[in-house]
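Today's session is about reading a structure prediction critically. Students often jump straight to the picture, but the first step is always the sequence itself: look for stretches that repeat, for charged clusters, for runs of hydrophobic residues. Only then move on to the predicted structure, which in these notes is written as discrete structure tokens rather than atom positions. Here is the chain we will use throughout the hour.
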Amino acid sequence: MSAPAPSMFTPAAKAMAQKLGLTMGRANLEEFADTLMELAEADPDIVAVTSDSRGSGKLAPFGKELPKQIVEVGIAEQNLVGIAAGLAACGKKPFAVSPGCFLTARSLEQIKNDICYSDVPAALVGISSGVSYGALGTTHHSLHDLAVLRAINNLTITVPADNFETREAIRAAALATRPVFVRFGKAAMYGLHRPDTQFEIGKAITVHEGTDIAIIATGETVIHALLAAGELESQGISCRVLSVHTIKPLDAEAILRTGRECGAIITVEEHLVHGGLGEACASTLLQGGEAKPFRIVGIPDEETVTGAQADIFRHYGISMEGLTSTALDLLQRA
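Below is the predicted structure for this chain, in token form.
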């Protein structure tokens, strides 16, 4: 019998979450599936297209309730994208759902040409992205997707951080008139936002105020940034945290404002340090004349260590403890 996967949060991190008044939600993938079914029940043009992934995409209930609004293509990701493009061209609103590692590698040409060049309003949903597959290793890690998709014209890229951002991102994708990519992991997430929080594609959300240092994060790393901000605050250091749920278009205004108002900046992402959020922010800051002490936290350019998602996060400093240490080191060097 295999040992249970380690928790994403250490006892100290859980204690900080409680101190900050955070409540544990469910996996964003589950929120996605329920939101998509709610939208599809009201709109028969919404169609889920899966590549042997309705189970891993939590879409089995969708298929049972709405069998005429789901298409199964099998393990054929290029076909998945092509069929989604055809459905969109015919007036349907397809959500093509597949593991992020395969969707954005095997099907890259189809994403570029069939979806983006053809300018069809299809939503591509990369599930179990980043290092969600853990010990399955490099073949199943999706650490390239933001880099390659950022390089393709006419594609909105969203990476929700919690259940609220997930729900709003899928609602926005259903209304979009251009191609959209949405990226999900598998872990259960704490809720990050107040009830009155406004969500808008292309606009980052400040989840913690501060001026000594800022952590700009995306997706499932945002919670670790927020917990680190709480720990830094207990040490007398104010830390701003931005949840950048939209990688493209990037909220340059919020990033430049953070550069002006904060003494140092860390970016954190569940992605290679090349080509993702960190390099996008670095380019924005330098071109905007806001050069500050800066550090990118992510997966380095090496053979990724093997282990559960939580093990990999901690190894590379994507944790409350790791980000706190990085912040203190950066401030000392500033």
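Discussion point for the tutorial: The longest strand covers residues 265-272.
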